Amino acid sequence: MTVTALLVSHDGGRWLPAVLAGLSGQSRAADRVVAIDTSSKDGSADLVRAALGDEAVHVIPGSTSFPDAVAHGLATVPAASDDEWVWLLHDDANPEPGALAALLAAAESHPDADVLGPKLREWPSLRRLLEVGLTITGTGHRETGLERGEYDQGQHDEVRRVLAVNTAGMLVRRRVLEDLGGLAPELPIFGNDVDFGWRAAAAGHATYVVPQAVVFHAEAAHRGLRRTPLTGRHTHYQERRAALFTILANAPAQWLPWQVVRLFAGSLLRMLGFLCVRSVGEALDELAAVVSLYSHPGEIRAARQVRASRRRGEPHDVRGLLAPRWLPYRHGLDFVTDLVTAASNQAQDVAERRRAAKAAELPVATAAASRPRPDADDEEAFLRDTGLVARFLSNPVALALTLFAVLAIVAARAAFGSITGGALSPAPEAAADWWRLHVEARHPLGTGTDVPAPAYVLPFAVVGSVLGGQAGAVVSALMLLAVPLAAWGAWRLLRVVGHLVDPAGLPRWVLVWGATTYALVPATSGAWSEGRFGTVAVAALLPWAAHAALGFSDPDADRRWRAAWRTSLLVALAAAFVPGVWLFALLAAVVGLGAAAFIAPRLLRDRSAWGPPVVAVLAVPVLLAPWLLPLVTTGSSAGLLLESGRLPGDRVDFTGLVTGRLGDLGAPWWLGLVLAVLALLALVPVRTRVPVLACWLLALAAAVVAAVLGQVTLQLPVASTRPSLGLFVVVLQGAAVVAACLGGTAYLRRLAGRHPAWQRAVAGALVVVAALVPLGGLAWWLASPSDVLERDADAVVPAYMEQSSLLGAEHGVLVLRGSVDDGVDYRVRRGDGTTLGEDEVLALADEDVAFTKDVRTLVSAPTPAVVTALGDRGIEYVVAPAPVDGRIASALDATSGLEQASAEDRTTRAWRVDRPLSAGSVEGAWAWSRTVLLVVQGLAVLAVLVLAAPTVRRSRDG
């Protein structure tokens, strides 16, 4: 029995001395040794020459693959006998002294064995198991049958047949190796061991693992300890592509169609899994591997033909050597379990930090501190025994917040069902209408327009799809849950702000007051009653965005970058409803970085210090690209200063800014004035004066910007209006709440000891007055009429015309109002009318001068040519609601091509266009630029979601 040892090396100088010592120290030495070096740059070839001699070393180009290196090594030495064995070794695989002897002993005791492999243990730990035989799952997972980090305790020391063994220490008959064509050249470095074992098994050759033979393997290429021209920087790409190739090249013909579909879908699922753990690089490698292999089907076809031509006789069934079918699902369950465990560990870390911060609080001398307190162990046992319900019922803060949320939903009872009115248009029939509005480049609205759909259409469409396609449920959910969501976000924000100002944080009842007071801003300002869902949504999102932005001050750089991506996502979502949020955030970032450059210029030298806020504001335009870029290019930049919903906008004056009122439907002015006074009194305590001043500076900046915008008039195609100021009302109210909470806490703690009675009386009076703000606001909202939002009553278009308009864009209805003397206004109704998401488009759409000229001719001197032009513009009916100008009606009655149509109201006149209808000028063609913007937005949203997720560090070595 002759053995030829074949060693392949490439930049393995750090391991080769031990490997060469292990090779020379074998109790049963190899008969011949051949070394192939692929142009190492670290002196590996010299080390091998010094140990084996010049004649045993062959240097070949560095781009040579491992299979080609093995083939070249065998070509340098002729076959010694019919019973020659080849022992393959890597330059990072160190065999124990008895490894070769154990392999040869197993070959004698198992005459049917043609391939044998050792037990691989980790190097340098020496005790951790890597492989005891190999197989592969149906999804391409390299399966070892070992637990992660499992130590060798002799539990796998049984010689058994397996599908494949690693080439690091593989002992194979030379005759079998040559008959099978050697290792697959299509697999240059990874996966050739499993592929060779599968081919050998299919040809009737047996592969055994011999655990008594031990080889220590550093897995340098797999772990990225070295890079070669074959691996590059994308190790996972090479490994995954090799796994897919192995499955598709060796699977039986009857399995192939199923495997093609399964591997493609499984790879996409794996990519999503990598994204969930923020392994963006591996997710892209996964996708690249699928695209690379599936785009070259000829490579798989040629590989299958080669394998079929090298088989001798009927192929053998290898199903018993493959991994069980259920194993991939167990791996998936393990992955989900790891995710849950990681999230739980992170939540536990946060809880530990909060407990540590709470333990560091300074004790406050109060009267209640002298009361007897039950033993801590007894209290914990009581809470553990009574459970979560008892803890909830015994927590007055939890009860108060729950009661507030319930009452807020009761006060918003008008939002149950379909709501509309004020700035809120009716919702479309289904969420698919929002998807269409978001995707199309030209909208068949009015006479057709290229103005982009508002950015909030996308989140509405996503939520609507989750809710079963019910568009009306999205609007109802927003108006119902905005106040509780704002309370939750304000609670979280105030807790963090309180701990940043004072390690003791804010008292729980101060948090309750601040959270509920801020949460009522959408209602008490009048935004809710006026249907200004943009301001309502921003009020709910703003504390969450501010809470995320506070992460910029975290000492950990990774947390700062995660805070940047979370902030950008939340700011983009808020800017989708009110674009001014991004502009104000951009201003705040510039001011903040300018102040940092003045106060601490060294901070700006650290990219992880100034990078997160810059990224947070610059990522927003990318996330909103399908709306922002077309808005600018179509000349509709005025939309940046408006909020979502119908025109006209809010009517905010100086009094409204001070008291937090948008219009006439807000709460009594004195509630907002009380809050302003409390924020002013918060400047008195010295202890919190600096953070309170910061709140006032933020409020001042918002007030200045609001004052400047208040002097601007936007000349829109449909009307003149002022910029929306609802955002600044929310910012001012939020700043006042934070300031009042900080100042009030400092004042109350100052009075915790013994003080004169009059000071205690003043403190009590302030507490009562402060409590009136949330209690009064909630009581006012509960007492408000429940039908403040209701469906518009003026339906000037008959029902049969509405049904006809649903048939397509060519069945439009032209509605005329006014007279020849006073002027005529017109609008075009298509589909189901103007629905939510279309108001902003029509408000910014430029006037169609040619169509206006046709309408002018129609009402003054109608001709058959004008009627034909109406048909070409997709106008089927003309409607003139009462009061109707008699000259217009008589002229239209006498016009050829117009037939009188019935109207439900006798005072309303209607005509039908008796001409061929076409909507060619209204509907737009596909635009590649829109597709590019949508793809960019989709990738940006996916990337930001991944980067904003908690970090789950993955380790290759378990």
UniProtKB/TrEMBL annotation:
<dbReference type="InterPro" id="IPR029044">
    <property type="entry name" value="Nucleotide-diphossugar_trans"/>
</dbReference>
<feature type="transmembrane region" description="Helical">
    <location>
        <begin position="397"/>
        <end position="416"/>
    </location>
</feature>
<keyword id="KW-1133">Transmembrane helix</keyword>
<feature type="transmembrane region" description="Helical">
    <location>
        <begin position="471"/>
        <end position="491"/>
    </location>
</feature>
<feature type="transmembrane region" description="Helical">
    <location>
        <begin position="533"/>
        <end position="550"/>
    </location>
</feature>
<feature type="transmembrane region" description="Helical">
    <location>
        <begin position="610"/>
        <end position="629"/>
    </location>
</feature>
<protein>
    <recommendedName>
        <fullName>Glycosyltransferase family 2 protein</fullName>
    </recommendedName>
</protein>
<feature type="transmembrane region" description="Helical">
    <location>
        <begin position="667"/>
        <end position="686"/>
    </location>
</feature>
<keyword id="KW-0812">Transmembrane</keyword>
<feature type="transmembrane region" description="Helical">
    <location>
        <begin position="725"/>
        <end position="749"/>
    </location>
</feature>
<feature type="transmembrane region" description="Helical">
    <location>
        <begin position="693"/>
        <end position="713"/>
    </location>
</feature>
<feature type="transmembrane region" description="Helical">
    <location>
        <begin position="503"/>
        <end position="521"/>
    </location>
</feature>
<dbReference type="Pfam" id="PF13641">
    <property type="entry name" value="Glyco_tranf_2_3"/>
</dbReference>
<feature type="transmembrane region" description="Helical">
    <location>
        <begin position="761"/>
        <end position="783"/>
    </location>
</feature>
<feature type="transmembrane region" description="Helical">
    <location>
        <begin position="570"/>
        <end position="598"/>
    </location>
</feature>
<dbReference type="InterPro" id="IPR050834">
    <property type="entry name" value="Glycosyltransf_2"/>
</dbReference>
<feature type="transmembrane region" description="Helical">
    <location>
        <begin position="927"/>
        <end position="949"/>
    </location>
</feature>
<keyword id="KW-0472">Membrane</keyword>
